[in-house]
Amino acid sequence: LKSINVAIVGYGVVGNGVAEILVKEKDLLVKKSNLDINLKKVFTRNWNKKFKFPLPENIKAKSLNEILEDRDIDIVVELTGGVEFPYKLITDAILSGKHIVTANKALLAERGKDIFNLAEKYKIRIGFEGAVAGGIPVIRTLREGLVANRIEKIYGILNGTTNYILTEMTKYGKEFKEALKHAQKLGYAEADPTLDINGTDAGHKIAILASLSFGGFADFKDIYIEGIESVDKMDIDFGRELGYILKLLAIAKDNGNGVEIRVHPTFLPADHPLSKVDGVFNAVMIEGNNVGETMFYGKGAGSLPTASAVVSDIVDIGKSIALGVGREIEITSMNWEHKDLKLVKAPDFYTRYYIRFTVPDKVGVLAFISNIFAKYNISIAAVIQKEKLESKLAKNIVPLIILTHTASENEIQKALEEISRSNLVKAKPILIRVEDEENNLENK
Ligand SMILES: NC(=O)c1ccc[n+]([C@@H]2O[C@H](COP(=O)([O-])OP(=O)(O)OC[C@H]3O[C@@H](n4cnc5c(N)ncnc54)[C@H](OP(=O)(O)O)[C@@H]3O)[C@@H](O)[C@H]2O)c1
């Protein structure tokens, strides 16, 4: 039985969960891994709080240096959050020869390249299973389970807060603000939910997944990101009539010209497996050239689900320490080809579109719009005009919905700009991208 000494920095939601699992599941972990994992020290900036999993005094560190200078500590688990503080902490810990486990997706998406390069230089391992999709072991799946595959596409629902809100809007007819309030009340959304709602969090996660899948560093700044803050319940309802469910989808795929990475509200066919992923759950679909399509489902956040992933990293790194091998052959780096990924920048991608215009109910409007669409090579798949359904709208003003076939985002934007210049159009057109078997999704 080999002893592994672990220190946690940051004792909040996830930190408490990790300590709880390490203590309560000690016997199970010994049986499964033959490791005696010892939580030696924990540092957090304020010990004068009530904790979900209270700790004995002797493991509460009074300073970070107590951990960094302790030569017996093998693994430092960073669970603070943010970017600058954990960047410095992890850099210092690497230089002190400690392996790292983190669940911090913001840090890895924004500064991952520097961290992984440094770690590689010092032969340090970095575990980050908890950083994407919480308890779902998707990082290990990409690195190990699917190692024999060229990844063609990876996409999924990577943010539980927004999925909860969209589910409430879809199933119970709530408006966005009401659904958000409810999510906050239940603890599914933070007091400041900005990074979830505006798609940044899902963007961080898909940047990490794309780096692992396609073998180069995906620069987060180049990813196309749109959140759910302006989603109108009306479009969720119209979409449903057309057979679609709205999800905040994160997509990364190699389209031949480079890797396309985008996060935006997306209509999916109602019978697609991701359409059935409701509430705070996450799910990821991965298509590999040899395995075909795979799907992973589970809790994407929360104290114990995330801690389950963090502890799996501790055990994994602990095993290689115990074996005394693995450091040299381990790919520590997310960017395994040591290059930046060539990203297809928005708007150079193709997909299908749902567009809602607000127009007068009169002859010629549709002809006007379809002429402009034709000019930009946009082919119309379906048109639905809603009768007086919207009491909110002035007399004789109606929603006109157009579903297109696969078209260029570039051309769509130009067409909408041209259409919007006409005084026939009474409000900014609403555009929602559609992914189905016609364009991107596998035909089931
Ligand atoms: N919560 C989840 O479900 C979840 C899921 C996946 C990944 N993650 C990631 O896991 C990390 C931790 O999240 P969390 O939800 O556990 O956050 P949290 O509840 O806010 O906990 C963060 C902890 O770190 C402490 N801390 C922050 N800055 C510090 C500093 N400069 N020095 C010392 N301690 C510091 C905080 O102290 P105070 O209490 O004094 O502020 C708190 O104890 C984040 O990177 C997050 O993105 C979270």
Q: Summarize model confidence as the mean pLDDT.
A: 93
**Which percent range describes the beta-strand content?**
15-25%
The value of Rg in angstroms is 24 Å
Distance between the termini: 49 Å
Backbone structural class: alpha/beta
Oligomer: single chain
Kindly state the percentage of residues in helix: 25-40%
* Sheet with the most strands, sense and barrel status: 12 strands, mixed
Counting H and I runs of at least 4 residues, what is the number of helices? 14
Describe this structure in words.
The protein has 444 residues and is of the alpha/beta class. 35% of the residues lie in helices and 24% in strands. It is built from 14 helices and 17 strands. Strands 6, 7, 8, 9, 10, 11, 12, 13, 14, 15, 16 and 17 form a 12-stranded mixed sheet that branches. Strands 2-1-3-4-5 form a 5-stranded parallel sheet, sandwiched between helices. Helix 5 (105-121) links the parallel strand 4 and strand 5 (126-127). The longest helix is centred in the last third of the chain and has 21 residues, at 303-323. The mean pLDDT is 93. NADP nicotinamide-adenine-dinucleotide phosphate binds next to helix 1.
